[in-house]
Specification:
12 strands; 37% helix; twelve-stranded mixed β-sheet; 274 residues; alpha+beta
Length: 274
């Protein structure tokens, strides 16, 4: 095991490209320049002179193409680093292997979401005859204050605690970065964001959507499908040729929306919340 450097950029991206849907998060960090901006955050597992697998180790631990030997090596390295992160997420088999090795040292998890279907589509919703919500659009940078409450509400619903305590400066900066990149889509009614979705990772022609949220008072009214369909249509038009996301298996409403928007299951993620 050793940290991946900028000299390993192409080799690391090639490892991610073995499954661009499952590895979109780490591929995007590489493309965004994190090998220079966050040196040491990406670990590589080498065997017989070849880069076999990767693990992003920062606020989160995210495995990429690790076999059992690689999982063991990454876990041993993390334990020696004495670093504990907020979550482990990624392909289920790799995450389960990491948690089996890290759990005894890190202590009990707050939650383990063992099966989160990994979904993808390359089909434009308009070709399926779906109506697209014309009011869903990229957020503007002057709308950070409108987006922040919706983003914080979504985070709290999903994770179980607020995204920040005290100052919102760091959280606001992350929202602004997504908006500045054109990766946040919103629907605004009466000066309030009522729908939001982010392209959290974009690399290798695949866009991974996260943070999908509809205002609680508008749920159950048939608004989520045209809103989500509009996001997928716009992303396929201007950003990528494939859109992916992963969803909690117990969220029947969301799964129904994604199914109608043309998504299909291609794998399973697991998230361990710490």
């Amino acid at each position: 095991m050793r940290p991946i450097s900028a000299a390993d950029h192409d080799a690391a991206l090639a490892v991610c490209a073995r499954d661009r849907v499952a590895n979109a998060f780490v591929a995007a960090r590489i493309v965004e320049g994190s090998l220079r901006a966050s040196p040491g955050a990406l670990l590589g597992h080498w065997s017989e002179g070849r880069l076999r697998g990767l693990a992003w180790v920062s606020a989160n631990v995210v495995p990429v193409e690790l076999d059992d030997e690689g999982v063991t090596a990454v876990a041993s390295r993390i334990i020696r680093m004495r670093r504990q992160c907020a979550s482990i997420f990624g392909p289920s088999e790799q995450v389960a292997g990491l948690w089996e090795r890290l759990g005894p040292t890190w202590g009990p998890a707050r939650a383990v979401r063992g099966h989160q279907p990994l979904l993808t589509t390359t089909t434009r919703p308009s070709s399926l005859g779906l109506a697209l919500d014309p009011d869903v659009r990229p957020a503007r940078i002057d709308e950070v204050d409108l987006v922040l409450p919706a983003a914080a509400h979504m985070f709290t619903e999903e994770i179980g605690y607020p995204p920040y305590f005290g100052s919102d400066r760091g959280y606001r900066a992350s929202i602004a970065a997504l908006i500045r990149a054109g990766h946040t889509f919103v629907k605004v009614l009466d000066g309030e964001v009522v729908f939001k979705a982010d392209v959290g990772s974009l690399a290798l022609g695949c866009a991974q959507v996260q943070g999908v949220w509809l205002h609680p008072e508008l749920r159950g009214q048939g608004l989520s499908v045209p809103a989500m369909a509009s996001v997928v249509e716009q992303v396929l038009t201007s950003m990528a040729d494939e859109v992916s996301l992963y969803v909690n298996d117990y969220n029947d409403a969301a799964r129904g929306t994604y199914d109608r928007c043309g998504f299909h299951e291609v794998g399973s993620f697991t998230t361990v919340l710490l």
